[in-house]
Amino acid sequence: MLRKHEIIHIQIEFAEEPLPDINLKLLQSFLLVAKLGSFRLAAESARRSTAAISMQIKELEDQVGMRLFVRRTSRVTLTPNGRLLFDKTARAMRDIDDGFRSLSDIAAMRQSTVTIACAPTLAPKRVGGVLTTFRRRFPDSSVRLIEAPPAAALEILERQAAEFYVGPSVSNLKTFTFEKLTDEPLHACIPPEFDRGQQTVRFEDLKAFPIILLDRSTAIRTLIDDILHRKSLSLNVAYELQNAFTALSFASAGLGVAMLPSIAIEIAEFDGYRVVPFGEPEAARSIESLPRRAMYSTITQNS
Fold first, then answer.
1. Rounded to the nearest 5°, which phi and psi values hold at 108?
2. pLDDT of residue 177
């Protein structure tokens, strides 16, 4: 009889010994025999002959180099090594089955559902036309919309949580190829007490006024900061906000001049300020789409 340390040594050597490539069907037959305790019952379950199942088990035992079953007249039972193989193989098979089911679920969902991620400022006014075009072209499919700021675009795209993204350009996504849809100009919302009546405005014109900006997590703020840096210009930023509607309400209350993209101003219902476009051509953010896929070409063209 082997002493305890000798048994451990043998099992370690067995675990490290490289096994030959084993046919998955052999393992499936092995699991079936182990669960049913019978070559005959396993053959009936697999709709094969008993001899065929027996030959597969013999082939598997030859490949691993050891007996896996104790064969008795009425029933077969696993040897200790057979039990070890059964436990590991059954677990691996469950993982494989779970993986295939997950992939099948994803494939089925993506055949019937398309997820579009869109910047919140674009969703209220621009996405309706996109969805109408999609439904007209693919009437059997449904669309799921995720409102996501540009800062969350990288995570969404890397997790493949959406098939399509529409929003301001995201400069740090070097591994993705965006397709430009349009440019969206920046406007100043100027309350009467700061209004000089000009038809266009420059950043230099606003140095003396309190300024209302969105915070640095937004694409429009990144654009403004880049322009100010190139001009070596600083403004009196009185308020930094997360929401465009809040910024417009502050401008409406006369708290300062708000700088916002045109779409955010169009969908708001505030008064108390005059909307003035910027004269600088660089004062516009690029609206882009990702990925460039043939089935969405009509969507991008009509957005």
1. -65, -40
2. 59
